[in-house]
């Protein structure tokens, strides 16, 4: 009887063990979910940038015999910028044009105490800028070389015709920053100081000489320094993605 119980117990144990064994090739596993790589919506590594100068608040070269402390003049939507970007270095080409009626006080000998005229200024610059990082907010610095042509004329604004024509070679160090507000679109702001070697030619046509168009003329070469606390507020569009 004891042997029979032992055999029955062993048989029952074997049946239990076989019931718990499952073949590996019959098990169904769920498909593993591999997380997708996260991509930033603000990839800032673009090859090209085009921008419009939306606003500027800056000084211009001295007019006639005014003091070196020139007033700041504001302008808007009067400049374009193109940049070729290579990692954190950008090569830039820009042009700006100013055209407005301005008033001067005690500008020249023999001129009225106050006179008004048309001031036109065109500047073209090429340069390099260095971005500090690749983040959404990017400070930068650099320098431009350029050429400026300026003309001030009072004809049609008073009894005395006075002209101030000036050509200038420019060296313009600058600092600035830009921030991406949406993918590909950034807002930039920068300030600069202009170191200029200028050639100035002034002409005063007094009333008795208007018919003959003869003038009292003066020519000068000089070094000048003028500042732009807001050289440009730009709206920039970036394209040509360099890296994913």
From TrEMBL:
Name the record gives this protein: Outer membrane protein beta-barrel domain-containing protein
Keyword annotations of the record: Signal
Residues of the signal peptide: 1-19
Gene3D superfamilies from the UniProt entry: 2.40.160.20
Superkingdom of source: Bacteria
């Amino acid at each position: 009887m004891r042997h029979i119980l032992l055999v029955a117990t062993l048989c029952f144990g074997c049946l239990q063990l076989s019931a718990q064994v499952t073949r590996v090739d019959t098990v169904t596993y769920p498909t593993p979910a591999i997380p997708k790589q996260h991509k930033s919506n603000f990839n800032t590594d673009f090859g090209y940038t085009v921008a419009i100068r939306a606003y500027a608040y800056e000084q211009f070269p001295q007019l006639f015999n005014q003091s070196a402390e020139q007033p700041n003049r504001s302008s808007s939507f009067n400049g374009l910028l193109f940049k070729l970007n290579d990692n954190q270095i950008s090569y830039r080409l820009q042009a700006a044009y100013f055209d407005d009626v301005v008033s001067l006080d005690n500008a020249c000998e023999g001129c009225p105490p106050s006179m008004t005229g048309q001031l036109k200024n065109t500047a073209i610059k090429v340069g390099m800028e260095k971005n500090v990082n690749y983040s959404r907010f990017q400070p930068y610095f650099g320098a431009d070389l350029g050429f400026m042509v300026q003309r001030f004329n009072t004809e049609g604004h008073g009894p005395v015709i006075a002209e101030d024509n000036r050509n200038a070679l420019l060296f313009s160090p600058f600092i600035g920053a830009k921030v991406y507000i949406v993918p590909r679109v950034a807002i930039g702001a920068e300030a600069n100081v202009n170191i200029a070697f200028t050639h100035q030619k002034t002409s005063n046509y007094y009333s008795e000489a208007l018919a003959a168009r003869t003038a009292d003329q003066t020519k000068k070469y000089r070094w000048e320094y003028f500042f732009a606390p807001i050289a440009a507020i730009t709206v920039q569009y970036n394209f040509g993605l360099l890296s994913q």
